[in-house]
Design brief:
The structure is a homotetramer of 344-residue chains. By secondary structure, the first copy, chain A, is of the alpha/beta class. Chain A has 2 domains: 13-253, Aspartate Aminotransferase, domain 2, CATH 3.40.640; 258-343, Alpha-Beta Complex (Aspartate Aminotransferase, domain 1). Chain A has helices spanning 13-22, 34-46, 60-71, 85-88, 93-97, 114-123, 151-163, 175-182, 186-189, 221-230, 239-248, 253-274, 294-302, 334-343, and strands at 53-57, 76-80, 102-105, 133-140, 168-172, 197-201, 211-215, 278-279, 287-293, 308-309, 321-327. Chain A has a 7-stranded mixed beta sheet, with helices on both faces. Chain A has a 4-stranded antiparallel beta sheet with strand order 8-9-11-10. In chain A, strand 8 and strand 9 (287-293) form a beta hairpin.
Chain lengths: 344, 344, 344, 344
Amino acid sequence: MHFASDNSGPANPEILAALSAANTGYAMGYGADEEMAKVTSRIREIFEAPQAAVYLVATGTAANVLALSTLSQPWQTLFCTRQAHINVDECNGPEFYTGGAKLTLVSDADKMTPADLRQALEGEENRGVHGPQRGPVSITQVTEFGTVYTLDELRALCDVSKSYGLPVHLDGARFTNALVSLGCTPAEMTWKAGVDVVSFGGTKNGCMGVEAVIFFDPAKAQEFEYRRKRGAHLFSKHRYLSAQMLAYLTDDLWLRNASAANAKAARLAAGLRDAGAHFSHDPQANMIFAALPRATHQRLFDAGAVYHLWDGTLDGAAEEAVTARFVCDWSVGDDQIDAFLALL
Amino acid sequence: MHFASDNSGPANPEILAALSAANTGYAMGYGADEEMAKVTSRIREIFEAPQAAVYLVATGTAANVLALSTLSQPWQTLFCTRQAHINVDECNGPEFYTGGAKLTLVSDADKMTPADLRQALEGEENRGVHGPQRGPVSITQVTEFGTVYTLDELRALCDVSKSYGLPVHLDGARFTNALVSLGCTPAEMTWKAGVDVVSFGGTKNGCMGVEAVIFFDPAKAQEFEYRRKRGAHLFSKHRYLSAQMLAYLTDDLWLRNASAANAKAARLAAGLRDAGAHFSHDPQANMIFAALPRATHQRLFDAGAVYHLWDGTLDGAAEEAVTARFVCDWSVGDDQIDAFLALL
Amino acid sequence: MHFASDNSGPANPEILAALSAANTGYAMGYGADEEMAKVTSRIREIFEAPQAAVYLVATGTAANVLALSTLSQPWQTLFCTRQAHINVDECNGPEFYTGGAKLTLVSDADKMTPADLRQALEGEENRGVHGPQRGPVSITQVTEFGTVYTLDELRALCDVSKSYGLPVHLDGARFTNALVSLGCTPAEMTWKAGVDVVSFGGTKNGCMGVEAVIFFDPAKAQEFEYRRKRGAHLFSKHRYLSAQMLAYLTDDLWLRNASAANAKAARLAAGLRDAGAHFSHDPQANMIFAALPRATHQRLFDAGAVYHLWDGTLDGAAEEAVTARFVCDWSVGDDQIDAFLALL
Amino acid sequence: MHFASDNSGPANPEILAALSAANTGYAMGYGADEEMAKVTSRIREIFEAPQAAVYLVATGTAANVLALSTLSQPWQTLFCTRQAHINVDECNGPEFYTGGAKLTLVSDADKMTPADLRQALEGEENRGVHGPQRGPVSITQVTEFGTVYTLDELRALCDVSKSYGLPVHLDGARFTNALVSLGCTPAEMTWKAGVDVVSFGGTKNGCMGVEAVIFFDPAKAQEFEYRRKRGAHLFSKHRYLSAQMLAYLTDDLWLRNASAANAKAARLAAGLRDAGAHFSHDPQANMIFAALPRATHQRLFDAGAVYHLWDGTLDGAAEEAVTARFVCDWSVGDDQIDAFLALL
C-alpha cells in the first residue's frame, strides 16, 4: 500500500536487464556510445522529428534547468504555475542555471489558462531595461495536481507564447502518463502543438534514473552541450543512461508502464470515490488528490498505508477532511489496491 | 587492446548485481534510503572518521564542483595544477558552481611542490579588495599524469595550505588506485595528512557512475546539500547510487578493482619499457605516459589497439617519438596485454 | 510643471559646491579618502550606531543588490512586495548578485502587513532541500505608492522576521522623505525597529548620485567590500561620492531637501483633491497617485505638464479616470505648483 | 610630489564646470538625457564610426566586465596578460559578470606578442565540450607596465584573434595616454586595427568618474543595456555622466590632459635616468617603473614623496635596488617634478 511517489518503487526489470546487457566490452564515453545513436534515432522516430537534437541526463531537475537555461537569458523572466516543479522543488536551480533569471507565477491552479498566461505576460509589460524581459513559458504535463492539459489547451497556450515570440518548454517528468491519458501521439502533444523543447521523463515511469531533453529545432543544441558539461551532468560511462532510455522505448515499455500506472490510479480513484472522498482535482493520470477525514487517514496509516497528506496534518478534528496525494507507479500490484480499498 | 580510459570498460558485475538486489520494493527517495545509511557508516569506518558527512553524486565533476563551491567564496581563487581536471576538463564548472571564483595554476608539472604552492600563494599577495582572495587548495591523487603523491608530499602541501588558513580538497577520481599504490590507509591519505574534503571516486574504478563527497568536518554539510539539490545532482531514486557505492565497499571490491588495474598497468609499462619506450612520468598507478615512434603507433593502431596520443599526431616523421597515454581499468585481461606486447 | 520623478530635477547646489571644494590636491582612492572617514562618523552619529559599517555606492540598485546579496544565500528566497524596486525595476539584479536567489512576493499592496508576511513565510514551508530556504525580508520606505510605514508597522514586520530568524533590509531610496513624514529619528526607523541593513538614499533627494549602505552589525562588512569591488561599484576617485554624502548630511541638507519635497507634494495633493482627483493611496511623502479624467490629463499634457500615467493611457473615453503618478523633488518651485493647479 | 596613481589627483576644473552647467532644470533619466545624444555623436565623430553604440558607466571595472560579458559565453576562456587589470585588480569581476568564464594568461610580460597569443590559443586546443571554449581577447593599452602597443603590434594581435574568429576588447583605461604617445587617430588604434569593443577611459585622465564603452558593431548593444542595468550601473541622473564625458571631449580636453601627463612623466623619467635609475620597462606614456636603491626610496619618502614600491619593500640592504611605480596625471605641476628631481 505504497502510494507516496512514483520515484519510490523499483525500476522495471527490463531496465536492469538492459543495463546488464550493455555492460560488456568497451564503449566510447560522454555520449559517443553506440546505444546513444540508437536512442536518438528512436526518439526522432517516436516524435516524428527527424532533425531533433536529443540529450540524456540523470535527473528531471537537470533536464529542466539545462533546457530552460538554454532557452533563456539572465535578464528574462520565465512563466510557469506556482506549483511548478521548477518553482517549488528545485531549490532555485533554474535561477542558478540561468544566471539569475526570474520566474513569473502565472496561476495558483493546476493548469494555467491562455487568459492567465496572457495576463501574466502583459503584467511583465515593457519597462524598457528596468524590468525583466519576457522569456520562455514552461508547461507541466501531467500537471503537479494530476490533471492533463488537452491538446486544445496546449495549443492555445503555445499560441499565446508564440504571439509574444516566446519559446515553450514542456516539463514532461510524467510525459507518458499524459500521453496515454490523452491517447495522442508524442508529436501531437509537443511540436505539433507548438512546444519547442521537452523534458521527457523516464525516472518516474520505471527507469532507474534517466531523462531525455529534446530540442525540435537543433539550433541551440551545441549550447546545451556546453551547459550540460559545465553543469557536471555529462556522464563518462554514458552507455548506462543510453541503455536505460533504449530499453524504455523498446517493446513499448514506456507505454506499458504508464498505462499500468494510470490504470491502477483509476482503480484507486474509483474506490476512493465510492468511499466518499472529495477530489480537489480530477485524477487524469497516475496521481490523485483526495480528501478524507482525519480519522480515516489515521486508520489507513496505522494499517501501513504510505502516502502524503497534502494540505494539513493529522492534528485536528477527527472528522475534518484533509487532502492527501496518492501516486501509482508502474509496479503497484492490484493486491495492494485491493488491500487499501478493503481497509478504506 | 583497449587502453583509452578507465571509463570505457564495463562496470564490475558485482555492481550490477547490487543494483538488481536493490531493485525490489519501495524505498525513500533523495538519500533517505536504507542503503545510504549503510554507505555512510561504511565510509566512516573505512576512513576512521566517525563524524564525517558523506554524500553521493553520479559524476566526478559533480563531486569536485560541489565540494569546491562549498569550500570557497566567489571572490576567492582556488589553487591547482595546470592539468588538473577542474581546470582543463570541466568546461568552467568550478567557475560556474562557485559563482565566479578563479583558478590559480600552481604548476605545469604532474605534482605541485610545497615550494610551487607557496610561490603561487604569495603571488596572490594581499591586494586588499582588488585582487581575488586566497581560497582552497585542490590536489589530484592519482595525478593527471599517473603519478602518486607520497604521504610526505601530501602532508607538506597540506601544511602549506594550513599555514595560510586554507582548506584542502582532494580530487580522488582515482583515489583507490593511489591508495593501493601507496599501501596506506584512507585516513593516512586524507585527514591525517590534512585533507578536509575528498572526492572519492567510484566511476573510474569499476562502478557505473557514483562518487562520494566526504567532509571530515560536517560543519558545511547542510550547505553542500542545498548546493547538490540546486545543482540538480540529488537523485530521486537515490538507492541506485547507494547500492553501487555499498557494493564497491563490500568484500574489498574497491581495493580489488584498483589492485587489478594497477597490476595490469605495471605489466604494460614493463613491456613498453622493454620495447624502448620513454616514460615522461613514472607510472605509479594505472596510467602510463610513454613515447613511441610514430611508426610504432601507426602499426599498433592498425592492429586494433585503442589509446590516445597525448602530445602530437600521426602526422610527421615516422621515427619521431610521440607520447601516448595508456590507461588500464579493472577489467583489462592479461590476454589483451599479451596481445599488445606481442604486437609491440 | 515637471512631476515625473525625483531623479529628473537638478542636484542641490550645495552638493556641487562640495564637489568643487573636494576637488583639490591628492586623495587616497577606493574609500580611503578623508571625507569618507567623516561620512562614517556622521552616519554613525545620526543613526546613534557607533559600530555601524558604512559604504557608499552610486546607484540605488547597487545599494540594494549588494546589501541583499551580503545578507542571503543563493538557495534562499527574499521577501518583498510585488511592486518593490528590487522586483520590478532592477532587471533581475538581485537574482544576479545573489547567485540565483528568488523573490517571494508578499503582497500586491503598497505595504506588506505582518499577516501577509507571515503567510508568505509559511508558504515557503519546510520542504527540506527541495524548495528555496527563507532569506531576508526587504521593506521599502517610502513605499513605491508614496505611503509610509508607521514605526509600529515597521516594528511588527521586523518582529515577524526575527521570529523566523531572518534579517531585515530597508530599501530607503526615499529614506529621508519617510523620516520627515514620520517625524522620528533614523534610529527609530531602523535598528530600534529591528532593521539590520539600510539602503540610505541620496540620489532621489538632491544628490547627484550617491547612496550609503549601512550595516548596524559590522560582522558581514568585509564580505560587502568584496562584493562591491567585484560588482565594479568601488570608485577609484571615491572622494566625490564622499563629498556628496558629507554635504548631504551637513547643515541638515538631507532634511531640508526632503521636507521641501514633501511640502510641495502636500500642496499639490491638496490642489488635486480640491479638483476632485481620487487618490488610490494616501500621499504621505513626496509621491501622489491620483486619478483624473483622461480629458484633464490631455489638457495638462498639452499645457506642458510632465508626469507619468500609471495604469492606463490616453486612449479611451475622455471622461474616464486614469491614475497618474506625480513626484515632487526638493527643487520644485511654488510657481510650478501654482501654474499646475491653476491649469487644473 | 604625489606620483601614486592617476586616480588620486583632482578632476580637471573643466569637468566640474560642466557638471555645474548641466545642473539646471529637468532632464530625462537613464541615458535619455540630451547630453548623452551629444556624447554619442561626438564619440562616433572622433572614432570615425557612425554606427557605433556608446554607453557610459562610472568605473573602469564596470566598463571592462560589462563589455567582456557581452562578448563572451560562460563556457569560454578570455585571453589577457597576467598583469591585466581584469585579472589582478577586479576581484573576479569578469568571472562574476560572465557567469563563470575563465581567463587564460597569455604572457607575464607587459605586452602579449602574436606568438604568445597564438600559443595560448593553441593551448586551449579543441577538447570538445570538456575544456573551456576560446573567447574574446582583451588587450590593455597603455599596458599595465607603462608601455604602448604600436599600431603594427595591435594589428598583429587582432589578426591572430580574427584568424580564430574571436572578438577583441581594448581595455583603454589610459586610452588617450596611448593615443598621444602614438600620435595616431582613435580609429587607427581601434577598429582599423581590428578592435571590436573599447573601454574608453575618462576617470584616470582628469574626469571625476566616467568611462565609455564603445561597440563598433552595434549588434550586441541591446544585450549590453540589459547587462548594465542588472549590474546596477545604469545611472538615474545620467546627465552627470554625460556632462563629464562631453566636457572631456570638448576643446580637446582629453588630449590636453593626456599630453600633459605624458610630458610630465617624460620629464620625470629623464630625471630618474640621469640619477642612474634602471627602467624595467620603457616609459612610453604616463607611468614609469624605475629601480632605485632602498636608501634613495627611504630618503624620498622621508621628504614627502608619494609613490608605490612595486616589487619589494624597504626592508633589506640599503644599497639594493627596488623597482617603484611612478604615475603622472594631468594635474602634476612642474614644481613638484622639480622638487622631486632636486631631492633625487
